[in-house]
Design a protein that fits this description.
Length: 231
């Protein structure tokens, strides 16, 4: 009886204790590794989510600002009245009534694409408010008062929907066959005599986002020429 009782209450041997500690260490290691992997993935997903939310917010601001693109008239080097709007695949330069920083005053806006060292591209916004002085001459541009990176991605680019010149526009309204607006890789209002109908921005492999502009008032430019000629 005494032998049987002592064998039932004996403790763990050193080997059993070491095996138990080894198993417990493995369980803790696997649990810690799993938690670390999950935490890193969670942080990455949260970071991606925050980035996409911020990009969507900035695109909404961009849409509002482009809706306010103004039929702004300035003088060129020949003292002629021209529309102020310039754009190609990598930059836009125009005047808007809905700037991001100071919405109480029109502003000169530059949107430009810059390439980073890692090959990514940034869409940068620059604003120069007209609160204290207006833009009169196309060659004397004010310095920006505010700069903001809207988002970072691959292959950011613009193109423009509109007319190449006034003759095409006139032919369209005279119902000449096969004459329609088209998508253009660059757009300079000084040459076309009008604003584009829409601006498209595309990046990476996403579907293009099209921002329609306000109705063009080219008659204002024609009126300014007539006043000058009659004066």
């Amino acid at each position: 009886m005494l032998n049987r009782h002592s064998s039932v209450n004996r403790g763990f041997t050193l080997i059993e204790l070491l095996i138990a500690m080894l198993v417990m260490s493995l369980v803790m290691y696997i649990g810690s590794l799993s938690f670390s992997t999950f935490s890193q993935r969670w942080q990455k997903d949260i970071g991606n989510f925050n980035y996409e939310v911020n990009k969507a917010k900035n695109l909404m601001l961009l849409e509002k600002m482009l809706r306010g693109v103004s039929n702004y008239i300035v003088k060129n080097d020949n003292d002629e009245m021209i529309y102020f709007f310039k754009g190609n695949a990598k930059y836009l330069l125009f005047v808007t009534n809905n700037p991001l920083l100071n919405p109480k005053s029109p502003a000169l806006v530059r949107l430009s694409v810059t390439v980073l060292q890692n090959g990514k591209q940034q869409l940068k916004y620059e604003e120069a408010s007209f609160e204290h002085s207006s833009l009169i001459n196309a060659k004397k541009l004010p310095q920006p008062h505010f700069t903001k990176v809207l988002f970072t991605d691959d292959n950011i680019r613009f193109n423009f929907y509109g007319w190449e010149n006034q003759n095409q526009r006139a032919a369209f309204f005279e119902r000449v066959e096969n004459v329609t607006p088209k998508w253009l890789p660059e757009y300079f209002a000084e040459k076309t005599g009008m604003l584009p109908y829409a601006i498209n921005i595309t990046w990476a492999e996403n579907e293009p986002i099209i921002f329609p502009l306000a109705n063009d008032n080219a008659y204002q430019l024609m009126f300014s020429h007539n006043v000058k000629d009659n004066g």
